[in-house]
From TrEMBL:
GO terms for biological process: ribosomal small subunit assembly. One of its GO terms (molecular function) is GTP binding. This is G domain-containing protein. One of its GO terms (cellular component) is cytosol. Keywords: Membrane, Transmembrane, Transmembrane helix. The chain crosses the membrane at residues 416-440, 452-476. It comes from the Bacteria. The keyword Membrane applies. InterPro entries: GTP-bd, GTPase_Era-like, P-loop_NTPase. Pfam families: MMR_HSR1 (PF01926). Residues 58-187 form the G domain.
Length: 525
């Protein structure tokens, strides 16, 4: 899928920066060969821009017998290349120079040692390449290398093989972005009748349109008779004089590399990311079960009631409460090592794994492969850390267990006062009993109605202590539920943070990497 040219005003510098960043973002996610080619384009652009921009390297490329060497000699005005009609005669590229000053480093970079100075001024460097269909492998490799780096390409075709799939499939279709730095020449038109020349040129233009090269200039020439050569010289002079062919070539290379990255990424189309808030709840429920949060919440409520009874219960019986273990302390939530929470069951582990996979699936929805796989992998990448992280989150969460309500102290003081009243009545009765037992005279005993005060104090203190203890237990039960709700909220927040840090954030970071990649590829293209 080709990217739209949405940022036609972007400079070559901006596109190169965007392509380099897109390649970095795609590293490890997309085909390394495609990523490597994108980086090669950036490196090659840096080298070409550091060399002479006053010279334009133009390559004559074609098949065996197409007559490119003949055109090379005709344009150079002298016999520089050996001409052969049926067998490859050019084994190494050679250059004809118009204005050689400053061209040396560029030709060294192009790897063209054979150079001929044929004129001055224009800055044209005309290269005669080996045949792209040569039976010699080194010839074909030389063509592939130079076709990938020269500033301007002139494809020389002949009436017999201009429709040959070798040139169209292997080269021309891959150069769809290079229409601005390409010419196509149909050589040997002197062998055709006038009517056939026009028909062949129209047919060739149709084939080029199929290759994605509609609008590329197509010229009919004859290297033998000179027909059409002035038009070819004029077209070359026009492009060379602008001194922009090198930039057009690099821009086309950047676009082609961006297209390849986009295609490898499944199209690199924009999409609407899933909000992180929509991912938290399902994952949090599974993690809470695995972290035994419901058990902790119940323990907090029970511990609150346990401690309330120990602080506000009837002193006569509250010591029995001290014989029972504290439900919260048994979980060892305050120690630095692992807690005593039960390990998650197989069912709970399966729920966590499913929830993690669901996060990966939700975040990767709408993403093309292989990036969707990278997102799903990122969601699971830190799953092995979940157990310890959940245990630490529960152990370090503020449960408020050390905070004792003020009313506990008030009620506790009141209970001791009531117990003191009961003890005073008991001691008073005991003293009266002792005096009677010793047959000593008893002092007068005040009464409340018919009931003596010592009895009122004893019975009233006991009843009041029990009633206060009962009311306190009811209030403690209500307080336990309230504290459990607060603790549940605190633990859920802690569990949410663990899920976000270890599951959601890595997945969304990979998603964000793709979003940035799409933006950079679009800018480069």
């Amino acid at each position: 899928m080709k990217l739209l040219r949405g940022k036609a005003e972007a400079s070559l510098d901006d596109r190169l920066v965007a392509l380099a960043e897109a390649a970095d973002l795609a590293d490890g996610r997309l085909d390394q060969a495609v990523v490597g080619r994108a980086r090669d384009v950036v490196a090659r652009a840096g080298m070409r821009r550091s060399l002479s921009v006053e010279h334009t390297a133009v390559a004559l490329a074609g098949a065996t017998g197409s007559g490119k060497s003949s055109i090379f000699n005709a344009l150079a005005g002298r016999e520089l290349a050996e001409v052969g009609a049926t067998r490859p005669t050019t084994s190494k590229a050679q250059a004809a120079l118009w204005g050689p000053d400053g061209s040396g480093p560029l030709l060294d970079w192009l790897g063209v040692p054979l150079r001929h100075v044929v004129g001055e001024g224009s800055g044209l460097i005309l290269l005669d390449l080996p045949d792209h269909d040569s039976i010699v492998l080194s010839h074909r490799l030389e063509v592939d290398r130079l076709v990938g780096v020269v500033d301007l390409l002139v494809w020389v075709l002949d009436p017999q093989k201009y429709a040959d799939a070798a040139v169209h499939e292997r080269y021309l279709k891959a150069l769809g972005r290079h229409r601005d730095n390409m010419l196509v020449v149909l050589n040997q038109i002197d062998r055709l009748p006038e009517r056939a020349i026009r028909r062949c040129l129209d047919d060739l233009r149709g084939l080029l349109a199929v290759d994605g090269l509609e609008g590329v200039p197509v010229l009919g020439v004859s290297a033998r008779t000179g027909q059409g050569l002035p038009d070819l010289r004029t077209a070359l002079d026009r492009k060379v004089s602008r001194r922009t062919a090198w930039a057009a070539r690099l821009t086309a290379d950047v676009g082609t590399a961006a297209d390849a990255l986009s295609e490898t990424a499944g199209g690199a189309t924009a999409f609407t990311p899933v909000p992180q808030t929509a991912l938290v709840c399902p994952l949090s429920r599974a993690l809470s079960e695995a972290a035994a949060v419901p058990l902790v919440v119940r323990a907090v409520a029970k511990a609150h009631r346990h401690r309330a009874v120990a602080a506000t219960g009837w002193p006569v019986t509250r010591w029995v409460r001290g014989l029972r273990p504290d439900p919260l302390r048994r979980l060892h939530l305050s120690r630095k090592g692992r807690t005593s929470l039960p390990a998650p069951t197989a069912v709970q582990l399966t729920m966590v794994d499913t929830a993690v996979r669901d996060v990966g699936a939700a975040v990767s929805e709408g993403l093309p492969e292989p990036w969707a796989s990278a997102v799903r992998h990122a969601a699971r990448s830190r799953s092995d850390e979940l157990g310890d992280a959940l245990d630490r989150a529960v152990a370090t969460a503020s449960l408020g267990a050390s905070k004792k309500p003020r009313w506990w102290r008030v009620i506790g003081t009141l209970q001791w006062m009531v117990t003191g009243t009961m003890a005073a009545g008991a001691l008073w009765l005991l003293a009266l009993f002792a005096l009677g037992y010793l047959l000593l005279p008893k002092p007068p005993t005040p009464t409340v109605g018919q009931a003596p005060w010592p009895t009122v104090l004893l019975v009233g203190g006991a009843v009041a202590g029990v009633v206060i203890a009962f009311v306190s237990r009811v209030v403690a039960w209500i307080g336990g539920r309230r504290r459990a709700r607060k603790v549940a909220k605190t633990l859920r927040a802690a569990i949410d943070r663990v899920g976000e840090e270890l599951v959601i954030t890595p997945a969304c970071a990979e998603q964000g990497r793709y979003v940035r990649f799409v933006d950079r590829v679009s800018s480069a293209g």
